[in-house]
Amino acid sequence: MKELIKLVLVAATLLISFNASAELKIGYVELNQIMQSQPALEIGKKLQSEFASRISQIEQSKKKISDKQSYLDKDGKNLSEADLKTKSKEISDLSIELERKQRELNEDATLRKNEEMKKFQDQINKVIDSIAQTEGYDLILYNGAAFTSKKVNITDKVISAIGK
What we know:
Elements lengths: L1 H21 L3 E3 L2 H5 L2 H13 L1 H24 L5 H55 L3 E3 L13 H8 L2
Parallel strand pairs: 1-2
Helix pairs in contact: 3-5, 4-5, 5-6
């Protein structure tokens, strides 16, 4: 009798877990696809235009240094030792200033990129949460699945919702 009760309990547990897993709704989001989508590309364009003037200034400084170095290489033989030393020091100072500007630009660009990517990630998370709530998903996974069928891939839904 005890064994019959155990058997019935095990069967009931299996039946309940089978029914629960049959109702589980799972979605999958491919983050790489989102990062290559139009909204992500717009972030890159925004940052590019934000730093365009500084990049242009750096390019002008590079050209100025290059022109001065070319002049020094060509006509340096005709300059006095003092003038040669002055011009070399000027090129060196400009090069140091250029390196400083490049380093500052890289740091600022990295900070801005991180800020924008955090905002974008927050936006992605809100969209996924909204889709999960409205469509009744129990679990939505990001990259990291060995296989997903097209049936559970909701990446296109997320991308279109981000664009709104």
